[in-house]
Amino acid sequence: MRRSLNRLVQLAVVVAISCSWMTSPRSADSAETATSPSPSTADRSSEILLGATFEAADSLTTKPSDPNTDARACLAGLCWTPESFDVEIQKPWKEGAGDFCVCFPTPRPVGHASNDTVAMEWYVARDEAGEPTRAPACVVVHESGRGMDVGRLIARSLNAHGIHTFMIHLPWYGRRAPDTGKPTMDMVLPALSQGIADVRRARDAVAALPVVDEKKIAVQGTSLGGFVTATAAGLDRGFDNTFILLAGGDVAGVIKHGAKDAAKFREDLEQAGLDDQQVADVLHSIEPLRVAHRLDPNRTWLYSGKFDEVVPPEHCERLAKAAGLADDHHLQLHATHYSGMIYLPVVLAQIHAHITAE
Fold this sequence. Notes:
Layout: H1 2-21, H2 28-33, H3 39-44, E1 53-57, H4 69-78, E2 84-90, E3 100-105, E4 117-123, E5 135-141, H5 149-159, E6 164-168, H6 185-207, E7 212-222, H7 224-233, E8 241-245, H8 251-257, H9 261-271, H10 276-285, E9 300-305, H11 313-323, E10 330-333, H12 344-356
Parallel strand pairs: 5-6, 5-7, 7-8, 8-9, 9-10
Antiparallel strand pairs: 1-2, 2-3, 3-4, 4-6
Helix pairs in contact: 1-12, 6-7, 6-10, 8-9
């Protein structure tokens, strides 16, 4: 009875915060978040037009150093030679998918034209007059669902409170999906490392946009996106803040022992005829635990579910330990992988506060 009462109290608190935080889009709260633009910034907001192109450059450390031999091997397999690249502003790829679509070339092409152009849904932070304004930014990395609904909800919610949000489409998702529909497993596995590189380059693509506060660019990922985020942020601490939701470490273990989404992925692998060793080799190449010690523990937050059946809690604890996260940087929600959604307003309010903190 006491446990049930505690859950009801928690739910009541979440609902109350939901009403106060998620239902005030582009309000006074947004104006407080936006950075007061300098005259030059205000003038440059007029450059945000369809077809506009901005020059960007990779800030990735050319040869990340690490005393750990395995970490160096992981980095060697994931990093690329930094270069300049163009960032183009295009119309939204579909209705309701942001104000603009921001496109740039992947740093790790796989030979498929549409997939090798990275797409991000840009939800623009605006001032009280409705004009684009200088503000912090967050790259949002979506979950495994083909509709990317949770990622889009997070992007819209943070944007409603004055943050530029960019929901990146991982390889073979959204605008990058193959013409044949759902990609085959032999297309998905090689794209895992591509997605990590795309997320890291997204930081520099976002920084090239004139209305973004380039000193405050965060990354947030949920479930599949959380695993990608953990590894991408561990490459070289390129992001100012990192937020990992419902993800952890030991990807191979999650797929082998996890239920529901993890079990479905395991079934797809079996149907594709891939043996355990082949899968283990691919997943090892993108394993977050190999670079987790490179995350900044003071600027990384992990949100896990105590009763998560897809990503069992011990996998989240392993990531938290490897990253050296303090208890107040690993928040364990009284939820499963799916009921964790009721805590989303609380989590987003915290993320917003960390991103906008001076």
